[in-house]
Amino acid sequence: MEGIELLKKWIDESDNIVFFGGAGVSTESGIPDFRSVDGLYNQQYDYPPETILSHTFYMRKPEEFYRFYRNKMIAKDVKPNRAHLALAKLEAEGKLRAVITQNIDGLHQAAGSREVLELHGSVLRNYCTRCGRFYGLDAITGSEGVPVCSCGGTIKPDVVLYEEGLDQETLQKSVDYISRADVLIIGGTSLTVYPAAGLIDYYRGRKLVLINKDVTPLDKRADLVITGKIGEVLGEVCGINQEEK
Ligand code: NAD
After folding, report:
1. Of 115, 123, 154, 210, which residue is most buried, by most CB within 10 angstroms?
2. How far is residue 203's CA from residue 184's CA, in Å, rounded to a whole number?
3. Is 8 helix (H, G, I), strand (E, B) or coil?
4. Which residues bind nicotinamide (predicted)?
5. Whether the CB of 213 sits within 6 Å of ligand 1
6. HSE on the CB side for 40, CA within 13 Å?
7. C-alpha distance from residue 204 to each of 69, 91, 102, 222 (Å)
8. pTM of the entire structure?
9. Alpha-carbon gap, residue 163 to 185, rounded angstroms
10. Count of C-beta atoms within a 10 Å radius of residue 146
């Protein structure tokens, strides 16, 4: 595949790689993204996912929010794919400093990555909006309708909904990693969701790698564009076999 050899060389030479990714990193694990042809936008719903996953919608129609959320945002029995495993391997080898992700599925940690900055939170964490009590995923999967805490308050996922702000500490750490990175690998994101997509403006190096199966708005700015499936690309670059999944 074109570009693979150059990416291998840059990875070999660096101990300061940062990865920034999105929903496309998990499609090979069976979790749909939003904007691919087979993504959630192209399936039939009364509203687009961004409307349902907005703060306004959550407040106005919580039952519908939870119906969509349970069906589409929580994936059961999913496993990390070769992209997640390759990134965890690069971190273990002391080459990769951090994974910055827009994903909420927890698959980077499941693959063994330790420094994972979850810009949009995680479906694995949930909390009571009244008393603050923490709940795991079971509170959502094991309930129906709007999940309720023992205190009577509503349980909300620790996921950043559209219209909600990002955690400032996570954002600042991401800026720090990206601005100091030698190689920045961006993959599986349409780069259309802000402020997350704006983070890449902090990169100052000359090894900006973009791995995506479709064209993105950043293609012209990248130093290396690899068109393909990210699991296949990173799997090949890092020597992760299909069987290791
Ligand atoms: P997106 O759906 O807007 O874009 C996904 C991008 O990844 C597209 O450009 C698509 O072409 C590409 N892609 C899909 N599969 C790929 C593959 N195997 N290899 C390489 N590229 C691939 O996703 P986004 O930019 O992350 O923004 C959507 C928002 O919704 C984000 O906040 C995201 O985290 C969230 N979301 C998360 C999940 C998850 O946690 N797994 C799933 C859906 C949406």
Report:
1. 210
2. 7
3. helix
4. 34, 104-105
5. yes
6. 22
7. 37, 21, 21, 12
8. 0.94
9. 27
10. 13
Cα 205 to middle of ligand 1, angstroms: 25
Paired sense of beta strands 134-135 and 155-159, if any: unpaired
Nearest CA to 96 out of 239, 244, 238 is that of 238
Q: Note if 120 is an active site residue.
A: yes
Cis before 195? omega within 30: yes
For residue range 70-103, list pLDDT tens digits in order. Answer: 988 998 889 999 999 999 999 999 999 999 999 9
Question: Does residue 245 have a pLDDT over 50?
Answer: no
Question: What are the angstrom distances between the C-alpha of 51 and each of 39, 45, 219?
Answer: 15, 11, 28
- Separation CA 200–CA 135 (nearest Å): 33
Phi, psi of 75 (to 5 degrees): -100, 125
The response to whether 128 counts as a known ligand-binding position is yes
- Angstrom CA distances, 220 to 210, 215, 217, stand at 10, 10, 7
Q: Tell which residue, 38, 37, 64, has the closest CA to residue 53.
A: 64
Q: Is 108 annotated as a binding residue?
A: no
pLDDT beyond 80 at 39: no
Backbone phi, then psi, for 174, in 5-degree steps? -65, -45
- 198 within 8 A of 20, measured Cβ to Cβ: no
Distance CA 41, CA 191 (A): 16
Is-contact 245 219, C-beta < 8 A?
Answer: no
Q: Does any ligand 1 atom lie closer than 6 A to the CB of residue 111?
A: no
Does the pLDDT of residue 241 top 90, yes or no?
A: no
216 marked as part of a ligand binding site = no
Would the CA dihedral through 188, 208, 217, 19 be positive or negative? positive
